[in-house]
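This is your field. Please look over both lines of this record.
***
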Amino acid sequence: MNIFSLLTILSFCLNGSGSEVQRKDAPISAPSKSVTVAQGEVGRWAGNCLRCSFEKRVWPAVMGTCYYPVDMDMKSGSYTISRRTTGGKLETAQIIVTETPCRQEDLKNFPKKEFVDVSAVNQARAAKEAAVIGPLIGYKPSVRPAVFDLPVGKPVKNLPKGEGNFGACRTLDGQPRDRHTGQDYPVSVGEPVLSVGNGRVVLAASHFYSGNAVYIDHGNGLISEYFHLKGFSVKADQTVTKGQRIGVVGETGRVTGPHLHLGVRWHGACINPGFLLVDPSDLPEVK
């Protein structure tokens, strides 16, 4: 073998065959899109969206935008989300769920002792009520079309700042209780409570823990909850409009005083309602 042949073989071994060598002008895959969303918050993916998916859950877009509500108890980490555009294109991204520290709320000398040491009768009542509520607020593979817009309306005309206790870890006289699923607003007894959007009342009832409560289905899996009312003026299956009076503020159920508890479930996820009261462009966005 002459020296020319040997150099040719060495060059081939070092550089590889022409089909394996990456050319300088070859396209490089762009990094996957992502969005970071804290527990209890909502991410968005705007632009000609038709359908959205988050893990194994699927739902229609709202006005061309995919919204991804993150439950307050969802484990932190990276999850896959996707969207189908109006042009038929399927796109995927990562949603990075970060942990929201649980605010500790210790309620001492709780005034309503029946909620501290709950009797067997009241435990049975609460369990029966929970069995009715569960299917209403859980994820459903088929949902009514959205009849709401974002941001949603205020639940009272002059809405004060919330008490910042969404997701709080609570104890009553030292006894652990479930996390707080809504945002409390310090509103006086008798103040009119308004529906945050167009929708259909799915339940209006007096419950042990929630007191007088109203649940409204706004379509696209969005359910709003209004607890501890002095009274309500709507009934199940009634259609309501945004800003319509549905009841008045009270202090029924497990409370220390008068206030409005506003809760939101979206595709089964328990989220902070405050994130639906802001301009949706302020929500974390897939980029």
